[in-house]
Each structure stands twice: as C-alpha cells, then as structure tokens.
Amino acid sequence: MYERLENMIKFDNVTKNYSGGIVALDNINIHIQKGEFVFIVGQSGAGKSTFVKMLLKEEPPTKGEIFIEDTKLSDLHSRRVPQLRRKMGVVFQDFRLLSKKTVYENVAYSMEIIGAKPKEVRKRVPLILSMVGLSNRAKLYPDQLSGGEQQRVSIARAMINNPTLLVADEPTGNLDPETSWEIMRLLKQFNRNGTTIVMATHDQNIVDAMEMRVIELVNGKVVRDQAKGVY
Amino acid sequence: MYERLENMIKFDNVTKNYSGGIVALDNINIHIQKGEFVFIVGQSGAGKSTFVKMLLKEEPPTKGEIFIEDTKLSDLHSRRVPQLRRKMGVVFQDFRLLSKKTVYENVAYSMEIIGAKPKEVRKRVPLILSMVGLSNRAKLYPDQLSGGEQQRVSIARAMINNPTLLVADEPTGNLDPETSWEIMRLLKQFNRNGTTIVMATHDQNIVDAMEMRVIELVNGKVVRDQAKGVY
Amino acid sequence: MKYYSINETLKSLFRNRMMSLASISSVVASLLVLGIIMSVILNINSFSEGIKHQFDSIDVYIQEDLTKNEILTLGESIQNINGVHSIIFETKDQALENLKIDFEEYSYLLEGLEYNPFPNTYIINLDDVIYADSIVNQLKNLQGIEEVKYYKDLVNRIIDLTSYVRNIGLVLTLFLAGIATFIINNTIKLTINARRREISIMKYVGATSWYIRWPFILEGTILGLIGALISTGIIYLIYSYSFQLFTSQFYVVFAAYMLNVKTIAKEILALNLIIGTGIGALGSLVSIRKYLNV
Amino acid sequence: MKYYSINETLKSLFRNRMMSLASISSVVASLLVLGIIMSVILNINSFSEGIKHQFDSIDVYIQEDLTKNEILTLGESIQNINGVHSIIFETKDQALENLKIDFEEYSYLLEGLEYNPFPNTYIINLDDVIYADSIVNQLKNLQGIEEVKYYKDLVNRIIDLTSYVRNIGLVLTLFLAGIATFIINNTIKLTINARRREISIMKYVGATSWYIRWPFILEGTILGLIGALISTGIIYLIYSYSFQLFTSQFYVVFAAYMLNVKTIAKEILALNLIIGTGIGALGSLVSIRKYLNV
Ligand SMILES: Nc1ncnc2c1ncn2[C@@H]1O[C@H](COP(=O)(O)OP(=O)(O)OP(=O)(O)O)[C@@H](O)[C@H]1O
Ligand SMILES: Nc1ncnc2c1ncn2[C@@H]1O[C@H](COP(=O)(O)OP(=O)(O)OP(=O)(O)O)[C@@H](O)[C@H]1O
Ligand SMILES: [Mg+2]
Ligand SMILES: [Mg+2]
After folding, report:
1. Which of B97, B100, B161, B167 to probe by mutation at the D interface, max D CB count within 10 Å?
2. Per residue in B141-154, pLDDT tens?
C-alpha cells in the first residue's frame, strides 16, 4: 500500500512557559504525518496535556510555530478557531462534559454544531454510544456516571464526527483493562480508516502491545521519538 | 506478629439502587479488619466509587447497614458526619480540590478543620507535599496543575492527618508508572504504620505486584474476595 | 445551524431553575420598584397639573358703560383669541355674592358697603397656561375692557411647581430605570458566570461564538419577559387596590386627579417590557462575551 | 477552630472578585434606590409638616369692653393652657391693616368702611395641631372672649394631607426596604450558588457546617458593609449637590423646608448599614444552608 506523506501536525521549535518560571514545553520539534498513530508518554507534569492544548489553540505557544494540515495556528483568526477544532476530535483528560446535558445530548451537541441533520444525529449517536458500551446510560447526566463512563462519553463525543485527527489525552486512565482494550480496538479501527491519532497515555501495557510510534517527553523536552516503540 | 482482629469496615447486606433501575451495589457483605490493605477492582461502572461514597455517608444505602469501627452509619446524626470523615483520608476519583485555594492551602485546609496548630500546619504540609513531589507547585491553583499533579494533591490531602482509614478511589489513574509506584510505596508505609487502606483501582500491574487482599465487583456484586490476590 | 425552539430554551431554564428563579425574581423586584415609583410620580404630576388648571383663568373686567350688545361683541372677540378655551360671563352682582361666599367670615364687612364696586366680568378658561401672556397682550387691543386681572405671579409659581415636580419625577424615573437596568444586567452576569465552564466547553468542542450565544440570548430574553410580565401584573393589582381604596374611602381630593389603572398599566408595561426583555437579551449578549475567548 | 482574620476574608473576596464586585454593586444599586427615595420622602414630609405649622394657630377675639389689665390676665390664662406654645397680641387697627395688605386688590373696598369692625385678638401658636380641639374647649371657660376663630376644616385637611403623605411615604420606604433586602439576598444566593461545589468539597473532607459557614457569613457581611458605605457616600454627594442647587438658585420655597444633608445622611447610613450588613450576613447564613447537606 502506497501512502502519500502529508503533514498533519508540525511543531516548529515550540516552547511554552507558564508564569512562575515553569517550562511546560521546551523547544519541541515534531512532525506527524496523516494517518499516523502516535503515543505521547512521559511522567506526570512532563507537558503532555500542554502539547494537546497547543494543538487546540487553547493556549498559545510562548515561542515557535504550530501547523495543522499546513495551517499556521498563530495566523488563524479567532473566528476560524471553531473550524480547526471541528476537524479534530478531542478526549480531554478532565472529560469536559456539559453538566446540564444528558449523555445523549453531550454527544449530539458535537454533531449539531457542524450542522448535521437531526435525522443523522438520531441515527449516529445511539450507534456510537453502543460502541463505547453506554446505550443504557444515554439519559443520565454526567454527574450520575462513574468515572470510566464519563471518560467513555468523552471518547464517543470525540469520535462522533469521524474527525481526520483524533487527540486523546489519557483516554483510558479511568478504565479497567478490558474496557481499555475495547477502546483501543476502536481507535485502531479509526486509524485504519485514515484518522490520525495522537494519544497521551501512562498505560504501559497498551503502549507496549500496540507497537506504534512513541514520543517521550521529559520536563517538556522530547527525549525519544521511536517508531514501534515501547513505554 | 500477633494482631488483634478489630472491625474497621463492615457492609451488611448493602444494596444501593439509583433511579432508573440502576443497581450500583447488590447485596454486599464485606468485613475489613483494622490494618488491612484491600484492593477493590472491577469493570467501569461495577460500583467501586459507590462503595466509597457509602463509606463517607455521601449517599445512604438503599438497603442494609454499614459499620465503621462499630459505628452504624444510619444511626449517625448528620452533625456527627464531619467526625466520621475526619477519621478517614479520602482520595476522590475526581480529585475534589478547592479551586480557589492553592495547593498548599488545599492540603492545609484539612489540617485546619481538625484544629491543628498553625505551627504544626506550617511544618507538616511542606513535608507531605515533598513526599508526593509537589514542593515546587505549592503556590499554584488546581487549574494550573497537570492531571497527575492534581491527583497527587488529592493524595497528600488524604494523608495529611495520618488517618486510621485511608480510602483511595483510583489514586493512580492519572499517574505514570514510576510516580504510581512511589505513591504505592507511600501507601504501603502508611499501612505498615497501622492505617487501614481501601483502594479502588484498575491498575493490573499494581494489584498483581502488591499481593494484597482483592475484592472484585461485577455489576455491584462481590464475585471474588481473595487474600493475596491478583487483578 | 440548529433551530433553537422555545422548547429547548425552556428546558435549559428548567435545568438551571435555581438560577432562573433567582434571575426572574431580581428582574421582578427591580421593575416593581420602577413601576411603583413611576405610578406615584405620574399621579403627582397629574395632581399638580390638575391644580394648575384651577388657576389658569383670566378675569376681564368690562367697562361700566357698555351696552348689552357691545358686551356680547366683546365676548365673541375674546372667544376668537388663540388659546382661549371657553369664556364665562359673570355679572357684578354675582361677583359680590361670590366674594361673600368665599370670605364668609368677613361677609359682615361687605354688608356695610354703599355700592357694588365690582365690574361685570368675563372669565376666560385657557387651553393651556402657556397661552396666558399672549392672550393678555391681545386683550389690550380690544375695546370696552376696563382691566385684565391675571394672577401672573401665582400662576408662574404653580407652573414652576409643576415643572419642578415633573423634572424631579423625570430624573427619578430615569435614575430608577438605570438602576433596574444595572441590577438586571448584574443578575444576568452572575447567572452566566455560573455557567462559564459550560460555555468554555462548548467552545473547546468547536461551537462558534454565535452558536453558543443564541440560546443564552434567548434565555435572557425569556427571563426578562417573564419578569416584566409578573412585575406589571403585580403593579396592576396593587394599583387597582390602591385606586379603589382612595376613590371609595378617603382623600377624595387626591383621588379626583388619580390616573386610572389602565393608563398607568399601559405605560409601565411598555417600560418593563423594554427594560426587562431588552436587558435580558443585551445583558446576556454582553456578559457571555468574555467567556467566549477560549 | 481556626481564627478567621479579615485578611483571609479579603483574600477570598479578591479571588472571587468578579462575584464580589457584582454583589457589591447590586447592594449599592438597591440601597441607592432606597436612600434616594427615602430622602425625597423625608423632604416631602418635612415640607408638609412645615406647611401644617403655618395653619396651626387659633385666633381669640377679645370682648370690646375689656380693660388693659383684664386683657393681660386673659393672656396669662391662655398662656397656661396645655399645648399653647406662645401667644401674640394683635390690636384691632393692626388687624385691619393686615387685611388690607393680605387682600391688596380689594383694599379700596375697605376704604369705604365707616368703622373698624375688627376686635383685639390673641393669636395662639400651638405646640402641635393635635392640641387644637382641647385648647378651643378650654378657651370657652375663660372670661372676656367674644369668639374663638379656628380654621378647623382647613387644618383638618392639612393634617389629613400630612398624614397621608407620611403614610404613603412609610409604605413606600418599607416596600423599598423590602425590595432592597430581596435583591441583596438574591445576589448573595447567586454568588453562593456559584460556589456550591467548593462548599460540598469542604463538607466531604470533614469540615463542620459552622466551620464552613463562618467565612461565608464574614464575606457576606463585608460585601454588605462595603455596599452600604458606598451607597451612603453616593447619596451624600448627590444630596449635597441638590441641596446647594435648590437653596442657592431656585425653588427657595421648597428649600426652606429642605432637610440638611447631615440629618438625611445619618438616617440613611443607619438604614443602609442595617440592611446591607444584616442581609449580607443573614443572607449568607440562609443561602449556604442547602449546600451543606452533603
Ligand atoms: N496554567 C498554568 N499555570 C502554571 N503552570 C501550569 C499551568 N498549566 C500547566 N502548568 C504546569 O505545566 C506542567 C506541564 O503540565 P501538563 O498538564 O502538560 O502535564 P502532563 O504531562 O499532562 O501531566 P499529567 O500526566 O500529570 O497529566 C506542569 O508541571 C504544570 O504544573
Ligand atoms: N447519581 C446516580 N444516578 C444514577 N446512576 C448512578 C449515579 N451514580 C452512579 N450511578 C451508576 O452506578 C453505577 C456504579 O457507579 P460507580 O461510580 O460506583 O462505578 P465505578 O465502579 O466507580 O466505575 P469506574 O471504574 O468507571 O469509576 C454506574 O453504572 C453509574 O452509572
Ligand atoms: Mg495531562
Ligand atoms: Mg469510580
């Protein structure tokens, strides 16, 4: 199978400092091609979530440039940011579910904002909820769910629009091994269908078993970037 | 070594139903002695956090009785509930940090409520923060921390008062393996000093390596209760 | 873009019902103040206008030697002056009688008079006091008039008084409308602040600012609308009750000038709707702004 | 229990500064309304009381044939009656002159009089209008009095008017105080609601209800206190300005009865402090309640 190499994500000398002298990312250079599956690993506080925040333009880098599909994020007008975010599905480490919407509505909301037809929404949302094993929790609110269930809602929401880029920050932190593997199987399937996947994780077993590209951060620096790596 | 067996926790035919026909705990009978170290494992949604909530009297059981150190929780007047909670240190799955207080203040608050002297507070809080590796984050607010750092603040807070019972719900879900092991070493040390530890977790490696008592829940039922068990 | 039905909005208002209730009741409270004070002010205005009208007449003393026909012609000429509403003819005998009635306690003084010193008089009712000066000037050109009596000072004072009352009333109303606006806006700010996390999440998953704004604006509008209607309703009830109390029982003097409930209710409803729904919508629009920059 | 310093409280208020500012400004706004309307009402009261005093006099006509000594004795007896503040003696000649001045335009009528029909008169100033009836009754028992003139109807009407004004004023003040209380309480409810998660966490880690409550009550008190002081300050400024405007420029009639700024400020400060800090504290106490049951 021949694949044309296309840039999906490019970090160009990116540094992120927080007030108080904290260096969360330190001169990062990373290229991720379309269709790749990349693990970001590293100790707690190494800068993994900061990396994800940069992609979303949630925080601007202190130095350097970030490109997504050749769009320079610093040039992106704030009015175009929603377009950027719709292109990605994101699983946030802290879930970020809408507390006043039910599980169903949380997932449907992401479809509605891109203008999906109600018929389409009614068909697709139950499907993806059953894929993450939450069909019977659709009418509950986030604070009525277990930690792992909330995480799975977050995963369902990230996947609902078949994004070209799926960014998952610690998507299995609250899941038991069995459910984790089910989620990984889903991600793999997405990846096979062409979705680029960037996943920050601490799960040694998963990283070791998947044999994908692994980028390791230590104190905000890339110390390892290895194809078919281990944790 | 001879140890007198004393009841720390006793669940007596405890059932917890949520509205919508959800059975979170189904006729649970568990005895945990003082000084034990118990893992609660089970799939996402199995009822682990509900078990923890019952201990805190955060939610009342639908049926059955819970005893802590021979106190029947259903008889405990709401005014005495703070006393109950102070006896325990709890690591919540969703951290539950005070967002308007710094890391230092979050931990100090738990000492202050039990009337600790300011001098004592100023001595002990930095100590425990350094134990969880957060000395240089003391002045930050929770939303300026990484996921794992928030989790460690939560752990520090649970340990600060040397509780006789430490309940930890998924305390390593956001931690890398190395930091996780450090936390486990801390817990083990606490346990050796007499603290009873109940820990809900998904971390197979940890459970397998620790060789402690394992209680497995499936759909709210105890399906396994094994001394020196594995995940 | 998704179509935001009233249904959806009501659902959201219900899910945040503690907030919704608090907002609505603050809207009601501040509009209630505005409405009540406004109805008092409107009535004081009406009262002082009424008083003014009791003094806005000009007495024209007619020369002693005019014939009946000449008097009639004079009357017609007066009637034709711009600003004259109507005229009444009062004979010298009537004038003396009226004085005796007005100053009853001194009537024995008047018994001692050898002749009736009063002239025949035309009493002019004006369309409005502002015409008084011009009428007095034009009367000077007419034949057969001995003297024009017009209590200029008194009338001026009363005009001063009424405009004073009106100005104070206007300032108070504007001030209160400002405060009501401020409080309603503040309340909306607080309710939106409590939902800032929700708003930022919507932004993080890729919703455009306007897509997020619309439902909040709609909610704000409905909160304001409900508040405006409730407060107007309460004022209607209080006012009807007071009106009945005053007109039926005491203070008949004041009751005569009291505006009826329909007049008051219409004005207040209009104002309440403008402020309530306007600030409900605008306040939401403005308050949500800073939470959208994520 | 930990000692809650003002310092800690200020820190918390600062960390929640958006909320604090919104609360304080709502407190200011509602107390401002209360204060402004109250100062208008107090002035209207003072004005109508002033008017009342211009009419609270009783004229005592003295019999024609009394000697100078008898007149003096009569004066002393009158002076001793309970409720009499002071008396003035007016001779019959003065009386006629006064009438001529009062009714200037009819003075030519009075020129035609053959004799002075007026009696010598004692004019009684009362301590308060309420004594009028009892004084009139007691006067009947005295010798040497021809007639007692007292404008009972007019005075009664004015008493009615002033008590009407006072009642309406009182009702309005109470109403506004109620609304201010309501809005302040509502605002505090909203700010506490926004911190409900914080409160529940404190409860989960084992803080007692009172341990959690105190800082909130202290914060509410300080918010209310700041709001009360600011609003009183603003009213002081507005009132001083208006007072100067009125007394120096126009409406001298009204200005004569205008209460000075110190009197007003003192009353309003007291009320604002009671409502502001009171509701700040109490509102916090009550609002926090439902979030403590976890
Ligand atoms: N807003 C902020 N202000 C100050 N420091 C911050 C802020 N956000 C993050 N940091 C710091 O930046 C560092 C990197 O944080 P980041 O969230 O990227 O870590 P992480 O690799 O995701 O860790 P974890 O595995 O624990 O989630 C941390 O040490 C954190 O304390
Ligand atoms: N307030 C609630 N209302 C309804 N259902 C609830 C509520 N709280 C919990 N549940 C349900 O009870 C079940 C048990 O939840 P619990 O949080 O105990 O799971 P858990 O074992 O901790 O799972 P996880 O590993 O995902 O954290 C879940 O299926 C959840 O949906
Ligand atoms: Mg992270
Ligand atoms: Mg759980």
Report:
1. B100
2. 999 999 999 999 99
Please, are residues D133 and D119 in contact by the beta-carbon 8 Å criterion?
A: no
Structure tokens at B30: 């568990």
The full DSSP string for chain D is: -----HHHHHHHHHHTHHHHHHHHHHHHHHHHHHHHHHHHHHHHHHHHHHHHHHH-EEEEEEPTT--HHHHHHHHHHHHHSTTEEEEEEE-HHHHHHHHHHHTGGGHHHHHT-SS--PPEEEEEEES-GGGHHHHHHHHTTSTTEEEEE--HHHHHHHHHHHHHHHHHHHHHHHHHHHHHHHHHHHHHHHHHHTTHHHHHHHHHTT--HHHHHHHHHHHHHHHHHHHHHHHHHHHHHHHHHHHHHHHHTS-HHHHTTPPPHHHHHHHHHHHHHHHHHHHHHHHHHHHHGGGS--
Note whether C91 and C120 are within 8 A (CB).
Answer: yes
CB contact under 8 A, B147 and A205: no
Over the stretch D79-112, which tens digit does the pLDDT of each residue have?
888 888 888 888 888 877 776 776 565 666 666 6
- B8 Cβ contact partners less than 8 Å away, ≥ 6 residues apart: B32, B33, B34, B35, B36, B68, B69, B164, B165, B196
Q: Kindly indicate the confidence band of residue D114, based on its pLDDT and cuts at 50, 70 and 90.
A: low
Assembly ipTM: 0.87
Phi, psi of D155 (to 5 degrees): -60, -40
State yes or no: pLDDT of B211 exceeds 60: yes
Among C3, C195, C205, most A C-beta atoms within 10 A, so best to mutate, is: C205
Task: Take residue B180 and report the two structure tokens written for it.
Answer: 């996780």
Token pair in block for residue D1: 């229990």
Residue closest via CA to ligand 1's atom 3 equals: B144
Task: Return the partners of chain C (3 or more C-beta pairs < 8 Å).
Answer: A, D
Q: Tell me whether chains C and B touch (3+ CB pairs under 8 A).
A: no
